[in-house]
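Example 9 (inverse folding). The structure is encoded as follows.
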């Protein structure tokens, strides 16, 4: 996958993309990530990328010309190979990013991520250039850079071959749309806090059952909204409904 990032602050990407899974995916040629400075595509001699609002109001807006020119330069470079890229604007007005969207984007060959700044971008970028708008949550960031990094990290780790054999996508919290169960490593006893004995029992069926119950319980307690859309058996739904009345039905550890 090729990912192009358009930003006024390319240096912000130097650290985050050079570690861990994203770094390994880049080194293995699974992901190719390139930043482009929007300022390099400004047309005037002062290389201006922002301007005042038509109609008045406080703050500055990213001008359309440099963004269109940057995207068109990338498209021109790459036109030969296959399907057109998805052009995504990072903005708090976009659809809320989640694991399902990460999976959807991981299927694309090429992505162009545009990081907004200041008060946002000229509406014509939205209307006539981008295919998609994404937000990473209901809070204000000064720019789309950190949001773009969040997308890159979430997407790249899904690419075939990006994870090592030790890591597994299947067991990830949220891959199934639910929160993961409590996990423990050695020592079995730490400051007299014991690992639940079921995990030391060697009984794999019982362990699987305990983990599934903890997954359901945790999601029920912390993110009941996730349970509405999750794939649960009828028995599991009834068990959860019964819990509020009879909490002792939880498998003891
Ligand atoms: Cl994508 N951009 C900005 N500027 N703020 C955000 C965001 C994006 N997502 C949440 N807050």
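The amino acid assigned to each position is listed next.
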């Amino acid at each position: 996958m090729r990912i192009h990032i358009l930003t006024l602050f390319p240096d912000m990407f130097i650290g985050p993309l050079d570690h861990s899974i994203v770094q390994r995916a880049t080194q293995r040629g699974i992901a190719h990530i390139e930043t482009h400075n929007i300022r390099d595509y400004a047309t005037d001699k002062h290389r201006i990328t922002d301007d005042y609002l038509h109609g008045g109001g406080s703050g500055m807006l990213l001008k359309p010309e440099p963004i269109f020119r940057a995207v068109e330069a990338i498209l021109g470079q790459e036109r030969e190979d296959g399907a057109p890229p998805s052009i995504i604007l990072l903005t708090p007005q976009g659809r809320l990013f989640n694991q399902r969207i990460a999976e959807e984007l991981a299927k694309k060959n090429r992505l162009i991520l545009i990081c907004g700044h200041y008060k946002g971008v000229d509406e014509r970028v939205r209307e006539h250039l981008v295919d998609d708008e994404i937000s990473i949550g209901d809070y204000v960031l000064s720019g789309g850079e950190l949001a773009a990094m969040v997308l890159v990290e979430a997407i790249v780790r899904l690419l075939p071959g990006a994870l090592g054999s030790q890591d597994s996508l299947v067991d990830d919290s949220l891959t199934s749309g639910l929160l993961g169960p409590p996990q423990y490593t050695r020592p079995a006893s730490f400051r007299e806090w014991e690992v639940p004995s079921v995990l030391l029992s060697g009984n794999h069926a019982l362990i699987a059952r305990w983990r599934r119950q903890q997954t359901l319980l945790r999601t029920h307690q912390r993110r009941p909204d996730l349970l509405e859309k999750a794939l649960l058996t009828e028995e599991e739904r009834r068990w959860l409904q019964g819990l509020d009345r009879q909490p002792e039905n939880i498998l003891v550890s």
